[in-house]
């Protein structure tokens, strides 16, 4: 999973895996869900993210990070 914020476009991108997006659907103003060839969600994009997301606060929990 990759989470990126693009300051120049004020876009928050959340990629759930590396599968390519075949189709996209806007589910709310400035919120787009990307789907793969099987119709499974592979990404979420939020435009005008600074108005919708608390970008200054980021918390992860419940993840187990593998030791390499």
Sheet of most strands: 5 strands, antiparallel
The mean pLDDT is 93
**Unreliable stretches:** none
Q: What is the beta-strand fraction? A: 35-45%
Radius of gyration: 13 Å
**Count of separate DSSP helical elements:** 1
Specify the overall morphology: flat
Report strand order across the widest sheet: 1-2-5-4-3
The amount of helix comes to under 10%
Whole-number total of structural domains = 1
Order of helices and strands: EEEEEH
Pfam family, one: DUF2283
Protein name: DUF2283 domain-containing protein
Organism: Gloeocapsopsis dulcis AAB1 = 1H9
Structural notes for this entry:
The chain is mainly beta and 68 residues long. The protein has one domain. 6% of the residues lie in helices and 41% in strands. The chain has one helix and five strands; from the N terminus they run E-E-E-E-E-H. A five-stranded antiparallel beta sheet has the order 1-2-5-4-3. The two termini are 18 Å apart. The model has no long low-confidence stretch (mean pLDDT 93).
């Amino acid at each position: 999973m990759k989470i990126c914020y693009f300051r120049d476009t004020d876009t928050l991108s959340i990629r759930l895996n590396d599968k390519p997006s075949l189709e996209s659907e806007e589910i709310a103003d400035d919120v787009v869900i990307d789907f793969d060839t099987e119709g499974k969600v592979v990404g979420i994009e939020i435009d005008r993210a600074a108005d919708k997301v608390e970008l200054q606060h980021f918390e992860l929990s419940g993840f187990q990070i593998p030791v390499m």
